[in-house]
Task: structure prediction
Amino acid sequence: MIGFIVWLWNWLFGCHHEHISWPITLGNRTYEVCCDCGAEFDYSWEIMAPKPPVTSAAALSRVTDVPIQHARRA
Ligand SMILES: [Zn+2]
Result:
């Protein structure tokens, strides 16, 4: 189960690097930058951690909805 969570975490954030900057706030946006590949991660002060990318979260909800829709049809 832990392995799945780690895999899901990496899949969501798409970066395996460890050199992440401190949160940067420009205008209304706060984000962290990977110093190795330049990936940007929107940062939430509420949870004190990077937010999942919106596109990945939407994709995940679509994936998780598929079995439910099949179950309803069957
Ligand atoms: Zn990176």
About this structure: The chain has one domain: 2-73. The longest helix spans residues 54-73. The two ends are 29 Å apart (CA to CA).
